[in-house]
Design a protein that fits this description.
By secondary structure, the protein is mostly helical. The protein has nine helices and four strands; from the N terminus they run H-H-E-E-E-E-H-H-H-H-H-H-H.
Length: 201
């Protein structure tokens, strides 16, 4: 009974507290918008910027749209794109369920120890069902940046999926204590604790 009251009290904290920015992604509750990356770039034929010609895979893969080249670039040859473009592609690919390609694009990020990279690695691992590996990445992201409330939200949602709402509540409290009340990170985790449903973005 006490445990239930504690959960309810924490979840019911007001959302109108001042929020701050957080390192892993913007406070955007909108689903990733479909771009050419997921609309037109799932095909066997992909542009290779190193050899400057199209190459053909044995089966379709999801490339990343290069707005400058006006071509779909193979996911393992996207390191020339800026980090913001890559992050958007990773988020879009993950939402579309293209986790292998999302991981491949993550591999192209210049700083593999960046807490945002670690956060998305945790997210893709969780969506692929490896909750233990996901937690390792989330913990690394949080150790690098304790104010990474998106990593905390994703970790909490993983705890919900594993049936551990008490651990999820711990992350919810951390988010709220770090100025994250009212953000998408807080709202999505709070809703997950209440409903048992996790988010795929």
């Amino acid at each position: 009974m006490l445990r239930t009251l504690t959960l309810t009290a924490a979840i019911a904290l007001p959302l109108a507290l001042p929020g701050t920015g957080f390192a892993a992604g913007g406070d955007d509750n909108a689903k990733p918008k479909k771009t050419e990356t997921t609309q037109n770039c799932f095909q066997a034929r992909q542009w290779d910027p190193e050899v400057k010609k199209f190459v053909r895979f044995s089966q379709p893969v999801n490339g990343v749209w290069d707005a400058n080249l006006k071509k779909c670039v193979r996911p393992d040859k996207t390191s020339h794109l800026d980090s913001d473009t890559l992050y958007k592609a990773i988020r879009e690919l993950a939402y579309a369920g293209r986790y292998d390609e999302a991981i491949t694009v993550l591999d192209q990020m210049p700083d593999q120890l960046d807490d945002k990279v670690l956060t998305y690695r945790g997210f893709t691992a969780r969506k692929l069902g490896d909750l233990a590996l996901a937690d390792i990445y989330y913990e690394q992201a949080i150790a690098t940046n304790p104010d990474n409330i998106l990593a905390r939200s994703y970790m909490g949602q993983g705890k919900v999926a594993a049936g551990d709402k008490v651990a999820a509540l711990t992350q919810l409290r951390e988010i709220q204590a770090r100025g994250g009340a009212g953000t998408w990170a807080e709202t999505s985790l709070r809703t997950s604790i209440e409903t048992g449903t996790t988010y795929n973005y």
